[in-house]
Amino acid sequence: MIVSLIGYRGCGKSSLAPLIAERLHWRAVDSDRLIEEQAGCTIADIFKSHGEPEFRKIEAEILAQLFNEDQLVIATGGGAILNSQTCELMRHAGPVFWLSAPTEELIRRLTQDVSTTETRPALTDLKFEEEIRTVLQNRIPVYQAVSDFEVSTAGRTLTDLVDDILQLIQ
Ligand code: S3P
Fold this sequence. Notes:
Elements: E1 2-6, H1 13-24, E2 27-30, H2 31-39, H3 43-50, H4 52-66, E3 72-75, H5 84-93, E4 96-100, H6 103-112, H7 115-119, H8 128-146, E5 149-152, H9 158-169
Parallel strand pairs: 1-3, 1-4, 2-3, 4-5
Helix pairs in contact: 1-9, 2-4, 3-4
Function: Catalyzes the specific phosphorylation of the 3-hydroxyl group of shikimic acid using ATP as a cosubstrate.
Pathway: Metabolic intermediate biosynthesis; chorismate biosynthesis; chorismate from D-erythrose 4-phosphate and phosphoenolpyruvate: step 5/7
Subcellular location: Cytoplasm
């Protein structure tokens, strides 16, 4: 079985995946980091040199390979759910958790996270906050449709969230 974490940038996928995996004695993988390791450059570099469609292709291929494995917790990239085949494989592999948070909270977290400007490429030509609002509005119905469970992260500690998720899968 594979546990997949989905949700917008800043929702906590990368922080939570290793904590869940540790409790299950499974392995955690962050698909963005795996892509960067394999490409030997940052995601921002891939966007810049090859464009977003090429990144999406690499992302879908790497995830398709990971979904063949077992006892894995995957922190997916925020846009991985844009590929319908990825969604199908993900749902087939095991439970999918959408880590949700109010838009204002995500804006606050992403503003504070320095890695946002260094490694996270822009997804639109819009200004920072406007991009988050617009992209989120389009994606929320997809996160909702693809996930088995919505886990609301606002005001919850990482330990609370790990407990919530483990309870839902056991
Ligand atoms: C993206 C989110 C990023 C990364 C890429 C595209 C998106 O992942 O995959 O920059 O489209 O939302 P995180 O959600 O881990 O930041």
